[in-house]
Amino acid sequence: MLDHPISSDNQSHKKPKNNLPARNPIRAFFYKTFQLFIILLLQFFVLRFIFSTPSKSALLLSNRNLPETISLPLPSPPPPLAEVIISSEKSKTGFDPVHRKNGGVSSKKLVGKCQHGMVYVYELPAMFNQELLDNCGDLDPWHSRCNAVSNRGLGPRAAGLSGVPENLIPSWYWTDMFAGEVIYHARIMDHACRTTVPELATAFYIPFYAAVAVGKYLFTSYTAKERDTLCEALLRWVSDQPPWRRSNGSDHFIMLGRMTWDFRRSKEEDWGSSFVNMPLMERVLKLSVERHPWDPREIGVPYPTGFHPKAKSEVDQWRNYVNTHKRTSLFTFVGGKRKIKGDFRGILLSHCQNESDTCRVVDCSGTRCYDGTSEILEAFLASDFCLQPRGDAYTRRSTFDCMLAGSIPVFFWRRSIDRQYELFLGDEPDKFSVFIDRKDVRNGTSIRKVLESYSRREVREMREKVISLIPKFVYSVKGSDEVKDAFDFAIDGVLKKIKEQKGKKSGKVIRKSKLI
Question: Which entry of 14, 239, 294, 338 is 20 to 30 Å from 101 by CA?
Fold first, then answer.
């Protein structure tokens, strides 16, 4: 029995191993917690190193297929780089970033075509374009607009048209003067320099049918808020897109199918929409059938005519046709008088009727010419000159109908031609037109005597100049590798302007960095 106590006592004097925590549970708890914290801290740093290293490697691998200069600020890639980028993008994604219905364009052709860069087209919610066309019967309080916006904006074919070579009749349409937005949208979707990759774009196109949207509210008693609702919604949507946020809209552009004045309302009670005057539109480049002559962010583009050639051969045939066409009248006037005091159109109509042996009249009072008529084309084809007074605005679609027929336009307001279409017609209107001050006409100046003062040589030279401009102001059915049309010149002008603008900004940054 003594053995047990002795044995117990002896064991109690031995130094126990790791039994300190057992004697103090609180200290054991803190000890284990500290161990766990050290282990977790070590794991955190190890895992962070493991995961961060592959990310950098993956980034390098992802850039191996891109040219070294891709990180440089390139508003528009120079041709060799554009070719490499597109080839790389196609190999990575499986689709051609330059998208056309015919399967794209070869990179070699792209290098020459897209020297000013490429265009990205926003896919807007349908309410801003397609739904407007779907509801075309409600766009005008008096007439259906369905014909006007049909056929990609070209309108119905001009059945029964006379005065045109038979083989060219299929290229003529009853095109509405305000259908430009639909035409531009359809054309740009097939454009050689359209890209589906925003990072490759120099410019961003907003395919909003502003003229279609606003037009239905212009001639009735809608409020200013109603006229602006869709425009405001569009700007809210587009200003939330990443490309817009990067540039604040300065590399974006839009086509306005109506005169700029329809979008420049400054007061609630004034005419039209305030779309162009909205703050978010300040930096956006605008294409308009009549531009504000002192707005550097606006480009005047031709009104669409009824001739939409399918090939260069049709353009050449038409130019030869109008050049050799027999002209039996000195001048013509196509238009109608209005029920306003001192209406200048009424003065011209009377003037022309009094000079019936030298002037041909097409009276378009009311809605006689609303849907198109062969009589207009025949009058222009048969006349040396055509009278072009201002209409609702300073410019008229009739100016381009007149020039298309090889007739020389006669203007009575400088602003009807000056600083309007320089990208297409040049900056010397005296070479293809005549100016007679409207005040002189009101004071009795004879239009006939002024026009008869031009020699046959001078008339021939002006007509030749007019005919040489035809390819630059007609809109083809689709793009052609053979010849540029008005749409091509417009897009080239936009891309060049935006590219130069980005280049200037890059230059300023470079100069500043050198000073630092």
Answer: 239
